[in-house]
Amino acid sequence: MILNATNATTTADTANAKATAANDPAASQDRFLKLLVAQLNNQDPMNPLDNAQMTSQIAQINTVTGIQQLNTTMQSMAAQFNSLQVMQGTTLVGRNVLTEGSGMTVASGVGKAGFEIPYAATKVTVEVVTPGGQVVDTLDLGPKDAGRHNFEWDASAYKGSTEGLQFRVKAVNGATTLESTALTLSKVTAAGATDGQLVLTLANGKNISYSQIKSLV
Fold it and tell me: Secondary structure of the chain in the HEC alphabet?
């Protein structure tokens, strides 16, 4: 039984070594040169190997070797880039960010959130609502330019639970209702990588990519 196990290990090691050699650009080039020399030594003197054909074969092996080396270089660069992304992501841990969402974050009696509007509005109002849809307060933010805006809500007078509070943005320009995007505030608690992409974990339990961050607060 010990002999069989040893043989199996040796066979596996040999197979791994062959696989490594097959993928090694230097080994591939060495095999090609040996075959080329053998072909030159055994060619028909009356019908020698065509120079153009030999040059073409050399160019092909150089191209293959170059591509293999390029792939190795690109893989190394990708790994370094992923590591750099995670390092940059760690600098966001503990920071507050705005992402798409309608959740109202309340801390120390103050609610904070934001919104985006594509065009200037003559009037913007924000309704703070419970998870059941009951309006608990309405904020008149007045006219706003196109773009991203942050706002605060004084929640000191609100006696209910602030868990799960939402908000709705209503923006108008005269008689025209404008589209708006609600932005929720949350703190980054962790940074990592999934499938080579930077992933940030928020205090509200969501995982987002860096591109989903609208603003740092």
Answer: CHHHHHHHHHHHHHHHHHHHHHHCHHHHHHHHHHHHHHHHHCCECCECCCHHHHHHHHHHHHHHHHHHHHHHHHHHHHHHHHHHHHHHHHCCCCCEEEEECCECEEECCEEEEEEEECCCEEEEEEEEECCCCCEEEEEEEEEECCEEEEEEEECCCCCCCCCCCEEEEEEEECCEEECCEEEEEEEEEEEEEECCEEEEEECCCCEEEHHHCCEEC
